[in-house]
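Morning, I've got a small favour to ask if you have a moment. I've dropped the whole record in just underneath, so have a look.
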Amino acid sequence: MKYNKVVITGGSSGIGLELAHLLQANGCQVVVLSRSVGQLAEGVLHIPTDLRDLGSIEAAFDQLGSIDALVNNAGIAYKSSMIDGDLREWDEMWEVNVRALGYCSQLALRAFPDSGGQIVNVSSMSGHRVPPSGGFYSPTKFAVRAMSEALRLELRARGSMTRISSVSPGFVDTPLLDTYFKGREEQLQQTKETIQMLQPEDIARQILHILETPLAVEIGDIGLRSVGQSV
């Protein structure tokens, strides 16, 4: 493993939790920034962090010291329509999915060694196409895609060797789906019975692959979906 100290946002469940354990098993020092500790294994450092609070993010990074890689994994998904969606849900998705991702990236760049580091953004297939029920969630993931490329171009212009990558999965069987399908539990159950969804470890392995790639190689984006998911 090329990176000794890896920071994961939102790593107390789902993809982040699986990734934290996978990286720890590969000899990494792992730090998780999230509100709850969840089921993190012993040895994974947890720093309580509210990603909607810029001061909380700053305080967390102040405790980190030097780091080698950041995985912006935290995300929130509501089925909140463009026509009449709840603006409080819009705010929460924007603050976590977009603003926190950008600010954590800024702070990580200051904590990387002079030789550069790695940022991996966990995005979504909803950042590549708008599904019928995409609502406001999909625009936040399109923003992640644009931010990743904007940051990459800025870093290259400054001569930085820090690498920027994304992973864009389709449906993954994580607690995020419970929020997205709130009030539509029967539809969620039917979806799970219809297709074999991706599992958190599927995404974690892709992130590990990015982190293990030779330093001269920059993976832009990995898109993946279950073979049972048509779009």
